[in-house]
């Protein structure tokens, strides 16, 4: 039976969402595809992907890649790994290595499985936030947990510690955010079953959830601040180019063997806006962005996650969460404190985006490549998804502040 509303935390699993890890798969990644699909693994081995890109042999490896593999025999976890590998290869194939000319066609041996696996997993057939972060991280020692040193990133474009750290940070933010999601959904579900006046026992439990959320939101910001250890110049001019989607190709990208010869697909690039986590938190907090982009980008999320957002919205609309919190001064204080922390996270994200992208685009004597554009060619100001970067991120922070609940004139919303 297809759920149209959430009744308990256990319902999360039906949408591939974990009460513990949020949108990061609870079962983790596998380290290798079965022998029947070793050819997929070989695309990123001997040499590994970064070296194959640097040495101009990647496109030769793709040309020799078999087109007769049967992907319908793979499990969901195996399909995710195959999608991660093929999408990394696709972006490297199209954009080249800064010296090779970018292409506008994926050959059939890449295009067909990308579309087939994309259909099976319910996700766009190119690199996404899911393929670079959610499905690209695992734990070295599961018992140790999601510490920086214990998170393994399987694939990067550059083979550098900076790129590994970038995905590592994103993965750990997702896990901490999973705690916020579970706590906030627990509150919404509890409120749904209570009268507006509430009950003492329930209020104490709800207050505890808000306190837990506050700690997790603080941790998310601490993790994001680790981006200060990264080299801004390397990020913008050597990593970011490969996050570009097909919109930056003059005509788009033709998927040979899938589409008619005159059809070119124009997908946006890999972007943190494709994270289902923050859209879920927005829904739960009642934060309204009025952004067609945020709705449209859901096709780049796994279908189970975008479907979850739809069901979550219906659940929250039925719960009267904001009304309930507004009627309890102690809860509204905690609620607003969480929103302040989320706003702070978004402002830090905006400042990092300005430093790593907008400011870097002004660096002199650079040659545009992929998503790394110079300022005079529109670089820096535009995000991977095509938004105006700083105004977009600033707007997210302002919308978050606007969702705060005024408290009898003592806590008036300000920004």
From TrEMBL:
InterPro entries: Indolamine_dOase, Trp/Indoleamine_2_3_dOase-like. One of its GO terms (cellular component) is cytoplasm. Heme b binds at residue 349. Gene3D superfamilies: 1.20.58.480. GO terms for biological process: 'de novo' NAD+ biosynthetic process from L-tryptophan; L-tryptophan catabolic process to kynurenine. GO terms for molecular function: heme binding; indoleamine 2,3-dioxygenase activity; metal ion binding. Keywords: Heme, Iron, Metal-binding. Belongs to the indoleamine 2,3-dioxygenase family. This is Indoleamine 2,3-dioxygenase.
